[in-house]
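Reopening: structure tokens for the nicotinamide-adenine-dinucleotide complex, inputs below.
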Amino acid sequence: MSEATFGSKLTMNLGPRSYDITLRRGALQNLYQLADLNRRVAVVTDSGVPPVYARQVADQCREAVIITVPQGEGSKCLRTLESVLQQMLAFGMGRGDLVVAVGGGVVGDLAGFAAAVYMRGIDFINCPTTTLSMIDSSIGGKTAVDLGDTKNVVGAFWQPRVVVVDADTLSTLPRRHYINGLAEAIKAGLLADPELFELFETGDVDADIDQIIYRSLQFKKGIVEADETEHGARRALNFGHTIGHGIEAVKGIKGRRKVGLYHGECVALGMLPMIESNSLRRRTRAVYRRLGLPVRAGFDKEKVYAEMLHDKKAQGGRITVIKVPGLGCWRADTIPVESLRSLLGLEG
Ligand SMILES: NC(=O)c1ccc[n+]([C@@H]2O[C@H](COP(=O)([O-])OP(=O)(O)OC[C@H]3O[C@@H](n4cnc5c(N)ncnc54)[C@H](O)[C@@H]3O)[C@@H](O)[C@H]2O)c1
Ligand SMILES: [Zn+2]
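Re-run output (same inputs, fresh job):
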């Protein structure tokens, strides 16, 4: 692929809520060039993100407080949200001030929601530092915390003012997290970008990571622009997520369960039954093997099915799933929930 991506910029066109997505190595150290930091700024990060990144941002602000929450999904909760909001209030933040997220999807979702509700909404900037957040969660405006075991059930659509993707931060990301996030890029490739998919078959994901991030964002941007609040086309992004979420509920790493699968790994498994072409399913499995994503996991299928029945999208006995008949195309299929049994390989 020849497309130059160094210093590329995409614009999310959402009328008055439009914003730039800047992809540039080293951009974090030059955030002041991309945003107004001449105000009070809460830089939200977590304990697993090397502190140097948040410090780099804070150092460019007129007045900054760094708020560090514990790493892990457990921080996407009301108690941590309250603590973040309290620290913002104690710092004297007003309606014209700013929240900057420096971290993965956990920090982005939590800090974004804090920005959405603080004084009925203040400015938010997202600086994603994981592949998953660079490829997927940092754009689109979905922010949320979990309520007990139910993910993302308390949230808001709150678009960032700017998204700054500095791929240099990936140098410290543990390999398994790095690969985990790529599952969402494989998703984009399968749904709409054959060239991106082929890059996973034959390319070098480390050498081509800027390209992978860029193309994935380009895909998601198009979908969000067409359907900001998920009433139509945005459903495509749920490809792999119906079964994926079921697997995540049963096998995901969260709370006291320290061993299990990450979100992208669950989505990777969830996509396979939704690929209708046998040859494409084989190619996808080969990509997973090449990258080190799971091709099968020993999970209790009955339990996964029971979890899917609880899924909020499974109400009314029918469920809409996204199927991929061939590389680069998809369709939404509304099926009786029982059909998920055969997709999972269970007896009727
Ligand atoms: N809002 C959305 O549209 C959307 C979409 C997909 C997923 N999500 C959410 O994203 C979350 C998962 O995000 P994630 O996969 O980024 O996980 P994460 O935020 O938990 O980050 C993974 C781990 O990597 C560490 N880390 C982050 N950046 C690092 C770096 N540069 N170097 C070293 N360590 C680093 C973190 O401390 C954490 O321990 C989930 O809560 C999910 O619900 C949201
Ligand atoms: Zn996902």
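The domain at 8-172 is CATH 3.40.50.1970 (Rossmann fold). The longest helix spans residues 175-192. Marking as resolved unless the reporter disagrees.
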